Amino acid sequence: MSIAPPALEVRNLSVAYREAPVLRGVNWRAPASGLTAIVGPNGAGKSTLLKAALGLVPRLAGEVRFFGQELRQARRRIGYLPQRASVDWDFPATALQVAAMGRYPRVGWFLPLPRAERERARAALAEVGMADFAGRQIGQLSGGQQQRVFLARALALEADLYLMDEPFAGVDAATERAIIDVLHRLGREGRAVIAVHHDLATAPQYFQHVCLLNGGVVAAGPMETTFTAENLSRTYGGRLSLLDEAALRPAAAPPAGRPLRAVP
Amino acid sequence: MTLFLQLDFAALSAAVLACLACGLLGNLLLLTRQSLLGDAISHSVLPGLVMGFIVTGTRATLPMVLGAMAAAVLAALLISLIRRLARLEAGAAMGVVFSGMFALGLVLIEVSGARSVDLDVDCVLYGQLEALIWPAATGLSSLWDPVALADMPQETRTLAGVLALTLAGLALLWKELRLAAFDPDFAASIGFAPRGLSLVVLVLVSVACVAAFWAVGSILVIAALVAPAAIARLLTDDYRRQFLLSAAAAVLMGAGGYGAAILVPWLLGLGHGLNAAGMMAVVAGLLLALAWAFGPYGRVRRVSVA
């Protein structure tokens, strides 16, 4: 047990959509800093875990603490990166206007965005390589560029904990690189990132910790000791294809050949 | 000129004010894909109107407006409650609430005997724009004479107040409304409660609906809510310009429709005038067709109006 309180602590969390339970009694303590992947099969409740922690979906039972505090007290320290597909990209807004939403908590209600805050948002866009697209309508951006705008908006929050819902989903190689750079920078600064991640092949490269989820936590801890073939097979219920022990061996070189993916 | 001020000015202003208030708020509905909400609210006010009549026993405007506003807010609350508790999609929740409340209004008319004293269905459906006159006007100077302005028909003055309220709400919550419309989950995660904001929108739309109701009628409220925003959406991809262009379209729709109702019968040599509210919807339709044909986002890209 570390001295610092966990960035996210979930106790006995249960969530159901209508009758169907998605999360059943989840208990998990995320590390106080560093990069953590949430990995699990489709329908395992990965996104739901993030949303329930943030109070975006109602929870049946359970408690959530951020840095040892209630959500309300810790809100300013938390940054959420929703799934890119969760919004309508035809919405009339520029990349800068979207990134600037990350500064709204500093501005508060009713007041227009001051110039200084707009410049902070512009700097966040620059950090993800989108400075030249600040005035561009978001509908005209590629999927990867849209994801980088979302990332810039999250960075503009200057949070201590980031909850990211599939940041790498459907992005190009350049965007993937840009996101990794940002994640590493956040990790070096002692911030915590918890990201839903789908690609089993890259998970051990990108993240230091892992939470294997399927309705409940199957295993959680440091990547080297937790991301094992046995734990994965328990998480996915034997539905893994190309299950190659070599690819999963800790500290192994980036797995050559085909990436390991779950069979849907 | 004096004759125009006396006979047409109050009605023309009411038409333009109604289209402006509804048209501006319509942007927020269109951008969150809930344009149907206008339909829902304009139907839901009926039981409130009838209750206002039953309680006071008169057709005085104010109690009926208050009753209608209460019903509209109640409908808005019911819709968001049903959406949240039953986790139904917005269209289903609206359909249940507005058909139920409209039916309740009809039942109230039957059992209360309001029908026998003529709760005017025509007025409810088509508005009573032609009835708005300003006899106190004596010339252009009346436009800034508080005594003469106080004699404007109540419908026109109410609409001016509602437009002021709408503009104040949009100005005060400009960035918040954009945030909640674009990404409600992110808005909630940073503490800008999207539920509260959508409730503000619902209340503003309800108030504008009821106020406009008296000028253009319940059916045409829907046109005033949807058309200006839809026209603007075909012309721009910029959030601020979306509101400015929808305001311009609303003015064109209100004034153009009112003018056309007078000019078209005269040009065609018809013996009778045309319904102004109807002509407004026709003008709005024409503007929409023009925007679609020649606007930069018309034929190129499909815009969902649902």
From TrEMBL, chain A:
Span of domain ABC transporter: 8-240
A Pfam family annotated for this UniProt entry: ABC_tran
Keywords on record: ATP-binding, Ion transport, Nucleotide-binding, Transport, Zinc, Zinc transport
GO molecular function terms attached to this record: ATP binding; ATP hydrolysis activity
Superkingdom classification of source: Bacteria
Coiled coil: none
CDD domains in the cross-refs: ABC_Metallic_Cations
Keyword set includes Transport: yes
Protein family (similarity comment): Belongs to the ABC transporter superfamily.
PANTHER family noted in UniProt: IRON TRANSPORT SYSTEM ATP-BINDING PROTEIN HI_0361-RELATED (PTHR42734:SF5), METAL TRANSPORT SYSTEM ATP-BINDING PROTEIN TM_0124-RELATED (PTHR42734)
Protein name in the entry: Manganese ABC transporter ATP-binding protein
Organism: Teichococcus aestuarii
UniProtKB/TrEMBL annotation, chain B:
Keywords associated with the record: Cell membrane, Membrane, Transmembrane, Transmembrane helix, Transport
CC per GO annotation: ATP-binding cassette (ABC) transporter complex
Pfam family, one: ABC-3
Localisation: Cell membrane
Domain of life: Bacteria
GO biological-process terms attached to the record: response to zinc ion; transmembrane transport
InterPro entries found in the cross-reference section: ABC_BtuC-like, ABC_TroCD
Signal peptide residues on this chain, from the entry's feature table: none
Transmembrane region(s): 12-31, 61-81, 88-109, 156-174, 186-205, 211-231, 243-268, 274-294
Keyword rRNA processing: no
Annotated membrane topology: Multi-pass membrane protein
Keyword rRNA-binding recorded: no
Family classification: Belongs to the ABC-3 integral membrane protein family.
Protein name: Zinc ABC transporter permease
